[in-house]
Description:
Elements: E1 8-11, E2 14-17, H1 19-25, E3 57-58, E4 67-69, E5 72-87, E6 90-97, E7 106-109, E8 113-120, E9 129-131, E10 155-161, E11 166-171, H2 176-181, E12 186-191, E13 202-211, E14 230-233, E15 244-247, E16 251-258, E17 264-268, E18 273-278, E19 281-282, E20 290-291, E21 293-296, E22 301-307, E23 311-317, H3 340-349, H4 363-366, E24 380-383, E25 386-390, E26 394-400, H5 427-432
Parallel strand pairs: 3-13, 5-8, 7-12, 13-16, 15-26
Antiparallel strand pairs: 1-2, 2-10, 4-5, 5-6, 8-10, 9-11, 11-12, 13-14, 16-22, 17-21, 17-23, 18-19, 18-20, 18-22, 23-26, 24-25
Amino acid sequence: MDNPRRTFFKAAGATFLGAAAVSRAGAALLPEAAQQTSPATLPPSPPPNGRPFQPLVTLNGWSLPWRMKAGVKEFHLVAEPVVREIAPGMKANLWGYNGASPGPTIEAVEGDRIRIFVTNKLPEVTSVHWHGILLPSGMDGVMGLTQPPIAVGKTFVYEFQLQRSGTFMYHPHADEMVQMAMGMMGLFIVHPKDPRQHRVDRDYGFILNAYDIEPGAATPRVNTMTDFNLWTWNSRAFPGIDPFVARTGERVRIRVGNLTMTNHPIHMHGPHFEVTGTDGGWVPRSARWPEVTTDIAVGQMRAFEFDALAGDWAIHCHKSHHTMNAMGHGVPTMIGVEQHDLVRRIHELVPDYMVMGDRGMHDMAEMEMPLPDNTLPMMTGQGPFGPIAMGGMFSVVKVRDDLARGDWRDPGWYRHPAGTLASELSSEYTAELPPESRAGAPAADAATVQVRKPHGHTGH
């Protein structure tokens, strides 16, 4: 701090830079504030300097670049209003960092000394809490308790040494309900000092978040506490959530943080996994056990790993209403209700009115209903066999035998090997069944019935 024209003061450990000082120092003082507004998953890049590490792939996100200055790794976060595409056909007015919500992932290595500049371009004060990171109290980012607020237009500096590796987050601790409800959060990954430790072939991460945005609107209702209608991963809802891709046999890690107001049982079809890390650290091998679902409570982080098995495997929150968009508690159940006489009368007033819900809700996934602008349908997404009828917290783990190592592109839909695809019972099947097991006959013992696969079926 040898330039007398810069004005600094220390407050509870965090350093404040006056706005005039920032403008005079310019690029010589602050690292570049990189911007990224695309909702696509950016492929990882190897670290250009500093200690080596295996980079994370942020689902529908990216990692923040840094510069090295006198052995310190410097980052620049800008808190600001952003526009985020939740899924094709809908955008939301959110708050985030560096053009995105969630903000970019911060990646560093155990033992690194890091310096994070935070510039506030929001319409109100803010701060940043480094969730789960061991650091001095004055760098913890709780406004009023450990630091003064970062005023509008001002920049603060947080500086600390990373003491342990693991999966962490960052988010405001200032007007917290509003700012997190508006999308302010991001991943903070600390890689092991030894790059061989906890190594996997592919490492993914995302944050669970939720919004209440009325149909036709674009700004979340920040006072909502329970009735959210958009359940998202990294502020994306299916079918806007990118797939996780891997090569058969690769070891894959998925890291998940929860900053919603409820827990989420994350369930993955196909290979079993084991929880290998929390925001409290890595789980010893002796304490792990196989799972297909891990429940992630509010404010928690989980890292789980599995050996990739060829196929297209669903991964989703197992709370069923979290895999639907635009849900509401006031929608009546119409199953079994005869509506045809009513429809005839309503058509005289509303010609486009359609019967819905009398046989269940799947019809809504098969038809395109007129919706207000900037509104997602409740169930959507097309697969190789028709509507997937999902929304919200849902994606696909796509594993292929022939996927090149280091290839992160979507490989398309899986082609099932012959004899491995469930299909409709046909006359060919029926003709080959023993007479006692055909329709209308008493069922035979399952162990005595052998069904031959259809000839020449190659799948899709």
